[in-house]
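Anyone up for a design puzzle?
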């Protein structure tokens, strides 16, 4: 039986969370597609990177953040973190019940990729996401003829969180990872971490035109909009929505990227888990 969301109001905010700046790539696309929505973003910067944490720890962090977003009356919760999705999606759904809609960043991408024309798909992601095998399982469940090769790329998130975007350090890391034999025959590459779109131009430069790089945040944002629309939960206000940012640790890099994406007027509030 499908959950009943008739008690929810379209004016309630959308909650989005990630371990750090990565989820901002998803939040930016959601904001672009749904400018009238109100948002609450939680970045768990005190505990990043999630990809190096145990499954139990990831579940614990995810549930605490989810509870915070529920307490702030969110009508939808977007797990804008591949690692949290791969390790804690079911636990988050159980906690939420029908209090809000729950979205993740893996299944919408897997559904789109599974029905496109290609035979070999590569995924780069954190260790925890790769260890879960969720991308491979999700894609091959829908299309068993697609070969999916996943590669753990653990140095990318710390490099991004330290501000090394479009930098010789990230150039070297990207070249080292993408030249791995696991990705030798791929036609399509999924960036299996919401941090990685911040490096999408560098990754595209490595491949040129021979490999298509999937822009996951756009796929996820379109999916969120479609499901909210089907449930009559799109905000009908005419003015631009508010965006509130909460961090478990305020970092200079988060401040820099969030202001680049959302403008200098935003404020960041410290919220310890």
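Challenge accepted. My sequence:
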């Amino acid at each position: 039986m499908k959950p009943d969301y008739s008690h929810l109001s379209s004016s309630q905010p959308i909650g989005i969370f990630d371990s750090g700046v990565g989820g901002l790539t998803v939040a930016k696309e959601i904001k672009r597609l749904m400018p009238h929505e109100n948002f609450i973003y939680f970045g768990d910067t005190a505990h990043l990177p999630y990809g190096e944490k145990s499954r139990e720890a990831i579940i614990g962090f995810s549930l605490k953040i989810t509870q915070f977003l529920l307490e702030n009356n969110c009508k939808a919760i977007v797990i804008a973190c591949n690692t949290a999705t791969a390790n804690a999606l079911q636990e988050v759904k159980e906690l939420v019940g029908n209090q809000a809609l729950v979205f993740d960043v893996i299944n919408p991408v897997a559904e789109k990729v599974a029905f496109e024309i290609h035979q070999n798909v590569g995924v780069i992601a954190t260790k925890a996401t790769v260890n879960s095998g969720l991308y491979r399982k999700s894609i091959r469940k829908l299309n068993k003829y697609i070969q999916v090769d996943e590669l753990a790329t653990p140095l990318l998130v710390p490099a991004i969180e330290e501000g090394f975007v479009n930098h010789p350090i990230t150039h070297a890391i990207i070249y080292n990872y993408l030249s791995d034999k696991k990705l030798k025959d791929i036609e399509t590459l999924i960036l299996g971490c919401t941090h990685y779109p911040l490096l999408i131009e560098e990754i595209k430069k490595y491949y040129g035109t021979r490999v298509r790089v999937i822009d996951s945040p756009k796929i996820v944002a379109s999916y969120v909009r479609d499901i909210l629309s089907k449930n009559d939960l799109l905000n009908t206000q005419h003015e631009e929505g508010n965006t509130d940012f909460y961090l478990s640790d305020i970092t200079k890099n988060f401040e820099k990227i969030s202001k680049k994406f959302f403008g200098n007027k935003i404020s960041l509030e410290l919220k310890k888990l």
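A detail worth pointing out: The chain has two domains: 14-104+218-270, 107-216.
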